Amino acid sequence: MGFMTNLSMETNGSLTDGKKVTVVFVLGGPGSGKGTQCANIVKNYGFSHLSAGDLLRAEIQSGSANGTMIQNMIKEGKIVPYEVTINLLQQAMQQSENDKFLIDGFPRNEENRAAFEAITHIVPEFVLFFDCSEEEMERRLLGRNQGRVDDNIETIRKRFKVFLDSTLPVIEHYDSLGKVKKIDAGKPIDEVFDVVKSAFSPKYEKVAA
């Protein structure tokens, strides 16, 4: 497919230039508030936030051949191949000066997860799972409906179903390895962040310059 040129990673979570990286996957249903919490983690713990969706959108906007291909696939209602997303994540990690990354909204399913580990040889340090009831997520999404077409009841319920069917097996896999830190995301933002902080041991704290 040609996406993987010069971007393969070696075992033990090093990028091709030997850079060691720490990866935390951030998973949660639509409206679970993970975006807000990712911003807090970046601020307090110095991680770089990589959103699979944002990287795909940025690639489309760049006007590259890869971006045009992604845009056409989305237009045709096709799912962008995981190699493309993994390639963009790898590039972002390699080009960053940071070595700690929150990967948000990926892997979306077991196939993504297996491919990410096989291609990058990176196993996440842990997985932050923002657990929130459907009722609460629905309430939040409808409340923030600022002209987002996809935030109507039917679409919201479809998105929940996709999340449950596809992403829960990923969480179960990492849970069996003792790598899931489950956060009750139904509480107010500050309370949720207090629990998030306990998931990050002091070794992750930002050193004051």
Overview of the molecule:
This protein is of the alpha/beta class. It has one domain (22-193): Rossmann fold, CATH 3.40.50. Helices cover 49% and strands 13% of the residues. It has a 5-stranded parallel sheet with strand order 2-3-1-4-5, with helices on both faces. α1 (34-45) packs across α8 and α2 crosses α4. The chain starts with 21 loop residues before the first strand and ends in a 10-residue tail after the last helix. Mean pLDDT is 82; it is low at 1-12.
Query: Architecture, CATH level 2?
Result: 3-Layer(aba) Sandwich
Q: How many helices?
A: 8
Shape: globular
CATH topology: Rossmann fold
Give short descriptive properties of this protein.
single chain, 209 residues, alpha/beta, Rossmann fold, five-stranded parallel β-sheet, 8 helices, 13% strand, globular, cytoplasm, kinase
SSE arrangement:
Elements: E1 22-28, H1 34-45, E2 48-51, H2 52-61, H3 65-75, H4 82-95, E3 100-104, H5 110-120, E4 126-131, H6 134-143, H7 153-176, E5 180-184, H8 189-199
Parallel strand pairs: 1-3, 1-4, 2-3, 4-5
Helix pairs in contact: 1-8, 2-3, 2-4, 4-5, 6-7
GO cellular component, one term: cytoplasm
Keywords: ATP-binding, Cytoplasm, Kinase, Nucleotide-binding, Nucleus, Pyrimidine biosynthesis, Transferase
InterPro entries: Adenylat/UMP-CMP_kin, Adenylat_kinase_CS, P-loop_NTPase, UMP_CMP_kinase
In short:
This protein has 209 residues and is of the alpha/beta class. 49% of the residues lie in helices and 13% in strands.
